From TrEMBL:
It comes from Streptomyces tabacisoli. The keyword Kinase applies. Keywords: Carbohydrate metabolism, Kinase, Transferase, Xylose metabolism. The lineage of its organism: Bacteria, Bacillati, Actinomycetota, Actinomycetes, Kitasatosporales. GO terms for biological process: D-xylose metabolic process. This is FGGY family carbohydrate kinase. Residues 246-432 form the Carbohydrate kinase FGGY C-terminal domain. It comes from the Bacteria. Residues 4-229 form the Carbohydrate kinase FGGY N-terminal domain.
Length: 478
């Protein structure tokens, strides 16, 4: 069929993979960091000049990497708001990431529409600091002159696609990226310009939302550019997840998402209703505590070997950690909604007060917290037959031991790869051929719950009992 490329513009770097369009085999790869920028006081900046993304892209594509490529797909960081004026120039640097400056604006938006439930009904999510709709409100409140100049709204992948096509009159996005803005309804499949006006104080033009296999356009050289999408949707597409699959991401915080046939409206705001890159939906539930629970425990135990040593220590204990239960709500918690709580260590007895039992309780507590999030989706009719486990911590022996029994399903750990870039390349192949490419899925390790599933259920029940004792009704419906 030919050769396609997928590029992933993350917050820190650009990765490019060049793939065989028939099989998905990776033929060549490119990488370049984004120009170094830091926020005041260090850390990742909240304001970024989009030209930095183009510079990184050009460097990553150097050395003839794209020679022979017939189509390109673009994946990019989500929640990056690129406000443009009437001439297509950026009004100000792009607002990226989980911008803490916008936290007050999020509360303001909830009040202006009336309630969290009203937002969930309107667009499938409740405003948070990271979302473009909230950043628009922040812009209107703190930079009113810039806000008045805004004529058109884009996200990172929209803007990159537009640049690759030579800034045509037609500007596009995809349903996956649109679903994370806070002003597009995954359930209705349409923009909510009234919510843009609510946030910004005026109307602004929005991109045309393309279908999953549509092309955004063709460059003068004849190169097809597909619709593009957000990193989460591209990674799911690159992994090859399908109905019955859930993806659990282990970062400092955690997330659980699953492929589902319809958008889920959740009045509590626990579920964020996103769209995927194939025409399906990706309901997502977030937790605030995942690997930070493990790191905190390793520090508490004084382990110089970090998480690997903690994992080895945990494997010296047994399921249930001799009755020791850690509720891992170290930073408060989002699922269940306990923003002002703290973690709890319960079940201290003389026989349980050993380092290996605390280590085991940390792993079980982290995974039980994520299993609670998975149950939120299951409780809404989402089928889960298999769980993909992502993140460096997924390679830990203790995680692989406890996850299948606590999730109660098959767990697969994909081989590390640039799945967002691969997903973007797969989308490019779809736009080029007009049919969904059936690429081989990710290479994985597979772990079954087997005979230990009843043991896992007992550990879950032990965790639930402590959670209900300390935080009664935490999962009660509003």
């Amino acid at each position: 069929m030919g050769i396609v490329a997928g590029l992933d513009s993350s917050p820190d770097f650009t990765r490019i993979v060049v793939c065989d369009a028939d099989t998905g085999a990776v033929l060549r790869q490119g990488y370049a960091p984004h120009p170094l920028e830091t926020a005041e006081g260090g850390g990742r900046p909240s304001d970024v000049d989009p030209q930095a993304w183009l510079l990184s892209l050009g460097e990553a594509a150097g050395g003839g990497l794209l020679e022979g490529v017939q189509a390109i797909g673009v994946s990019a960081q989500q929640n990056a708001l690129v406000p443009l004026d009437g001439q297509g120039n950026t009004v100000r640097p792009a607002l990226v990431g989980a911008d803490k400056r916008a936290q007050v604006a999020a509360a303001d938006l909830i009040d202006r529409l009336g309630s969290r439930e009203a937002w969930a009904e309107a667009v499938g999510c409740v405003p948070q600091a990271a979302q473009p709709v909230t950043k628009l409100r922040w812009l209107a409140r703190t930079e009113p002159e810039n806000a008045q100049r805004v004529a058109f709204l884009m996200q990172a992948h929209d803007w990159l696609v537009w640049q690759l096509l030579g800034r045509p009159t037609r500007r596009t996005t995809d349903r996956g990226g649109a679903s994370g803005t806070g002003y597009w309804s995954a359930a209705a499949g349409s923009w909510r310009p009234d919510l843009v006006e609510l946030a910004l104080g005026q109307r602004a033009a929005l991109p045309e939302v393309l279908g999953p296999g549509d092309a955004a356009g063709t460059t003068p050289e004849g190169l097809i550019i597909s619709a593009g999408t957000g990193e989460t949707m591209a990674a799911a597409f690159g992994l090859g997840v399908s109905p019955g699959d859930a993806v659990v991401s282990l970062g400092a915080s955690g997330s659980v998402m699953a492929v589902h046939h319809e958008a889920l409206v959740d009045s509590s705001g626990s579920i964020t209703s996103l769209a995927d890159a194939t025409g399906m939906h990706l309901p997502v539930v977030h937790t605030l505590n995942a690997v930070r629970t493990l790191r905190g425990t390793a520090e508490m135990l004084g382990l110089d070997g970090g998480l690997d040593e903690l994992s080895d220590l945990a494997m010296k204990s047994t399921p249930g950690a001799h009755g020791l239960v850690l509720l891992p709500y170290l930073e408060g918690e989002k699922t269940p909604n306990l923003p002002h709580t703290a973690g709890t260590l319960s079940g201290l007895r003389r026989e349980s007060m050993k380092p290996e039992h605390l280590a085991r309780a940390a792993f079980e507590g982290m995974v039980c917290g994520l299993a609670d999030a998975l149950d939120v989706l299951r409780g809404r009719g989402v089928e889960v037959r298999r769980v993909f486990l992502l993140g460096a911590a997924a390679e830990l022996h203790a995680v692989q031991a406890v996850a299948p029994m606590l999730f109660g399903t098959q767990v697969v750990v994909p081989q590390p790869a640039d799945y967002a870039a691969i997903g973007a390349a797969r989308q490019a192949a779809w736009a080029m051929s007009g049919r969904l490419p059936m690429w081989q899925g990710a290479a994985t390790q597979v772990f079954e719950p087997g005979e230990e599933q009843p043991v896992g259920q007992a550990v879950r029940q032990q965790f639930r009992s402590v959670r209900e004792q300390i935080h009664p009704g935490a999962f009660a419906q509003p």
